[in-house]
Amino acid sequence: MAGNSAIWRATSLGAEGSNSGDVIEFNQGALPTTTGYISTTEIEFDIEPAHNENSKGTIDEYQYVGLHSIPVIITGHIQTPSSTTLTSMIKKWAIETHVNGSFPKGRFGLRLNDNPIVNLTPTSTRGYLLANIKLIRPVEFTGKLDFIARLVFVGDVGSSPYTW
Fold first, then answer.
1. Cβ neighbours of residue 82 closer than 8 Å, sequence gap 6 or more
2. What pLDDT is recorded for position 22?
């Protein structure tokens, strides 16, 4: 766990280290050659909007249903994608199943050491689904592959202080 950020696909219950073949580390050094950098992270707590807005009177279950979803969008780039296995791993992650018997809510985990608010090691009651990943080859920069990954939290949010 040399980098300060990582995304992984869980293969067994436990910590990130038990998934050594399915981990992408980010921000490991000044000029990574087999990993990449995360440039921005967007975290959204999407509260279900009112379906029937009523500025006066009692709020009913159709006006406020609470937390709807927690998407996390990670933007960054991979250095030298032609000489790394990361692009193959991303393709595998996109194609293969995102849930299984041990991880019915999602197999993906996230670690952001500098912003741990949404760090999560998948369990049987919560995890991330890889909702979308976009790979972009910028024309003006050869030997670099930009990416935008969208993870979505699924499962039990637990109780305060929500440490997951």
1. 143
2. 81
Say how far apart CA 144 and CA 98 lie, in whole Å. 27
Q: How far apart are the first and last CA of the chain?
A: 18
Every domain of the chain and the residues it spans: 5-48+64-155
CA dist 143 and 18 (Å) reads 31
DSSP code string of 124-151: SSEEEEEEEEEEE--TT-TTEEEEEEEE
Tell me the C-alpha to C-alpha distance, in Å, between residue 11 and each of 19, 22, 73.
6, 8, 23
- Model confidence at 63, in pLDDT bands (50, 70, 90)? low
22 SS3 class: helix
146 versus 139: the higher-pLDDT residue is: 146
Determine the average pLDDT of the residues in 4-14. Answer: 83
